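Notebook B, p. 112. Complex prediction, attempt 2.
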Amino acid sequence: MGRRHDSSSNSDRAGLTPLGRYATLIAVNAPRPQTHHIFAHRGFSGHQPEMTIAAFRAAIDWAAETGLRLGLECDVQFSADDQLICLHDSRIDRTSTTTGVAFDFTVAELKAIDFGSRQTPNPTDEQRTLITLAELLIMVRDARQRDVDVTLAIETKHPNPRGLDTEDRVAAMLAEHGWDRAGSPVRIISFSMEALIKAGQLLPELERTYLQQFDFGEYETGKLPDGIEAFGPDIAMLKADPDFVARARDNGHEVHPWTLNEPADIDFALSLGVQGLTTDYPDRVWGHVNAPSRA
Ligand code: G3P
Ligand code: CA
């Protein structure tokens, strides 16, 4: 069973209670210049079912309300009918009411499956419905046209049945929006160095983040291959090696750990001097980034 989410009528669209919403507004009513990238992990997944239309709409709404820059993080993989869908797991068992391998379903079939009920009671249509990358790009485009400062961190998941076709397709889709060049609101992130290198060949002007879990391996010195801007480690890796952030910074790299949901983790990451924070709760992270004690 997935995490439960509050969808009661006492919450707003982002799932915030009146008190939570008030706390967010207090924090942003006295804003300092935003110095950190905040990334909404799988959409605003702390308050809405992950990777659904509702999760990304809530994240965009929060960015609109607060006036803050917010990155939307999504994992992409192919459907059976050659489209890119936003979904973390290779199977749909954990987040939907059906079982099976995501790649075996067409988009139409996935759209008919309930991705809301396992994560929130009585989901709305948008809380039940998985989003495609094409839809998400349009959502981001429309938000930016309304001057909402949202960006996108697209994670290409590997291994997958189509391999590096994923990068080819992402590049082609970004080109349709004119987002395949400098100034693009999109960064490519991946646990696969091979995928990041290919993304660099296709999209040399876009920022890239190398995600890591468990250990830094050959990158322990804090140096990434040329052109890859940021490290994206599991926060547990920084707890085991807090000096890593300084080494990465010395090599000119940013560090964007994940997934920062607990206050202690958020404060710890900020104390190390990370530049990006990936979280299921952008409102929580912003409260810490903008806390008076950090002035
Ligand atoms: O953005 C980094 C984070 O998404 C990596 O972990 O497993 O949620 O894709 P995962
Ligand atoms: Ca991810």
